[in-house]
Write a structure and sequence with these properties.
Blueprint (H helix, E strand, L loop, with lengths): L4 H5 L7 H15 L9 H15 L2 H10 L1 H9 L29 H9 L4 H4 L10 E7 L1 H6 L1 E12 L14 E3 L8 E8 L2 E8 L8 E3 L11 E12 L8 E4 L15 E7 L6 E3 L2 E9 H6 L1 E7 L2 E7 L8 E4 L15 E8 L6 H15 L6 H10 L1
Parallel strand pairs: 1-9, 11-15
Antiparallel strand pairs: 2-7, 3-6, 4-5, 8-9, 10-11, 12-13, 14-15
């Protein structure tokens, strides 16, 4: 039994789209084949991606919740899931049971079972259609995001067969009338159903609606017209991009059909966690340890930035946990000017071991704090110098 999509992402059934996206980014970073050593990481990554695609699509999620996991997958295999130009979820496909506004309905599954999604598909089969969009992921360091980077990566994608130019058969192959549909491009079957005898007309599976077959098929693509090839691409990552955002490379997806344009390549961006900084929007947060005397007497400390260091003035009497802002040392604004800020939270460190002079100074400080005594400037200078 397949695993429920909500369980795959580890979210509740009433989770918001933001919660689903956050869960997806966490799981994707854990299971992506480029970063995970688990033997089944690729399969888990595919499940996570599929779960996210369904649960962030309002129409598909509604149908998923109505049908349940198993029936949803069965309907999807029959092409009965999804709206838009290629889906069977709305009235545009001639489905009288389609939901209002293109929303899916449980009757779609029954309608497809009886009528094969409508006869209009067969008549439009030879129209040019855009190829499918493909998806991949690129993982970046915070430093790369700060500067912007040109990233090269390799994907395996469908390509038009170079041997037959996408025809699926040699150029000199003889054409013949399809014996399955007798050149009609459609086949008709009659079957008994609970609603009576139903006649179903669908696109011929052998000639795919053309009414013709060929005496030979291409030896390279096996008649499909496409092969799976490796492609090395380069994408410019803009400075300031955030974890979970998606870049689009137009025309780098799967090839179109019947002269249609290629689909696009969607690149999901993942940003690795950093040892020194946490990111919130374009602001960065850093915890910095300072000594007890520095907190008492104040002074200047050197704190890290993404590309180096900068000075931070710590006032005297600073308490552990206080936060200071350094303007302009955060992340760059995406496709804009300027930077966010760097917020530094200081943590006062208690010394684990003391020499005799340090211990004597602190004991004197403790005694002075507990009695009404005259603590002059020279007294504090002695404590400061002992550390």
């Amino acid at each position: 039994m397949s695993e429920d999509f909500y369980d795959v992402l580890g979210v509740s059934r009433d989770a918001s789209e933001d919660e689903i996206n956050r869960a997806y980014r966490k799981k994707a970073a854990e299971y992506h084949p480029d970063v995970s050593d688990e033997p089944d990481a690729e399969e888990k990554f595919k499940k996570v991606k599929k779960a996210k695609e369904v649960l962030t699509d309002d129409e598909k999620r509604q149908m998923y919740d109505q049908l349940g996991h198993e029936r949803f997958e069965q309907a999807e295999k029959r092409g009965g899931v999804g709206g838009g130009a290629g889906g069977a979820g709305g009235r545009r496909q001639g489905n009288p049971f389609g939901g209002m506004g293109g929303q899916g309905s449980p009757f779609d599954d029954i309608f497809n079972q009886f009528f094969g999604g409508g006869q209009g598909q067969g008549r439009q089969r030879n129209r040019p259609r855009q190829g499918q969009n493909l998806r991949t992921q690129v993982t970046l360091d915070l430093e790369e995001v700060y500067r912007g980077v040109e990233k090269q990566f390799t994907i395996t994608r469908p390509e038009e067969c170079s041997e037959c130019n996408g025809r699926g058969h040699p150029r000199d192959a003889d054409v013949q009338t399809c014996p399955e549909c007798n050149g009609q491009g459609q086949t008709t079957t009659v079957r008994d159903t609970p609603l009576g005898r139903v006649q179903q007309t669908q696109t011929c599976p052998r000639c795919e609606g053309s009414g013709e077959t060929y005496t030979e098929t291409c030896s390279v693509c096996g008649g499909d017209g496409v092969t799976r090839e490796e492609a090395t691409l380069t994408v410019d990552i803009p400075a300031g991009i955030r974890d979970g955002q998606t870049l689009r490379m137009e025309g780098e997806g799967a090839p179109g059909e019947n002269g249609g344009p290629n689909g696009d390549l969607l690149i999901d961006v993942a940003v690795r966690e950093h040892d020194d900084f946490e990111r919130d929007g374009d602001h960065l947060y850093h915890r910095h340890a300072i000594s007890f005397p520095r907190a008492v007497f104040g002074g200047t400390v050197e704190v890290p930035t993404v590309e180096g260091t900068t000075d931070l003035d710590v006032p005297s009497g600073t308490q552990s946990g206080e936060e200071f802002r350094i303007r302009g040392e955060g992340m760059p604004h995406l496709r804009g000017r300027g930077h966010g800020d760097l917020y530094v939270q200081v943590q006062v460190v208690t010394p684990e071991s003391l020499n005799d002079e340090q211990r004597e100074a602190l004991e004197a400080f403790a005694e002075a704090g507990g009695e009404d005594v005259d603590v002059n400037e020279g007294f504090f200078e002695k404590i400061k110098n002992s550390f």
